[in-house]
Amino acid sequence: MSPDEKSGFAEQSQTSYDAELREQLLRRPPRYEKLKLGNGGRIVIPAAMREEMGVKPGDTLIAEVKDGELRLISRRMALRQVQAEMAKYRKPGESVVDEFLAERRAMWGEE
């Protein structure tokens, strides 16, 4: 038999074990996870997903149903989304806080 001929099942050799790649894959949160709906409509969010969301037990989440999908986001992420949406209304160099404080100082007779 020549070296080019394959015998048996003609399997290719398995790639060598890469411990670093395994660790990277284990650290990556699952994109999709099968969850079971428990009593009272409860679900448990897997630890990797909670970590990716930046939430821990006791934190408040914001829930939304959109197009039949349940979406959960942390309050911190909800705030960031609102800030990003409102940023387009802010004029360059404008400080709403400074304007508010100036109005209050004028009202109190401090300026």
TrEMBL record:
Location of region: Disordered: 1-23
Ranges where the SpoVT-AbrB domain occurs: 32-77
GO molecular function: DNA binding
Keywords, alphabetical: DNA-binding
Signal peptide: none
Taxonomy, superkingdom: Bacteria
InterPro entries: SpoVT-AbrB_dom, SpoVT-AbrB_sf
Database matches in Pfam families: MazE_antitoxin
Record flagged with keyword Transferase: no
SMART domains reported in the protein's UniProt record: SpoVT_AbrB (SM00966)
UniProt entry tagged with the keyword Cell wall biogenesis/degradation: no
Coiled coil ranges: none
Classification via NCBIfam families: lp_hng_hel_AbrB
Protein name: AbrB/MazE/SpoVT family DNA-binding domain-containing protein
Organism in which the protein naturally occurs: Neoaquamicrobium microcysteis
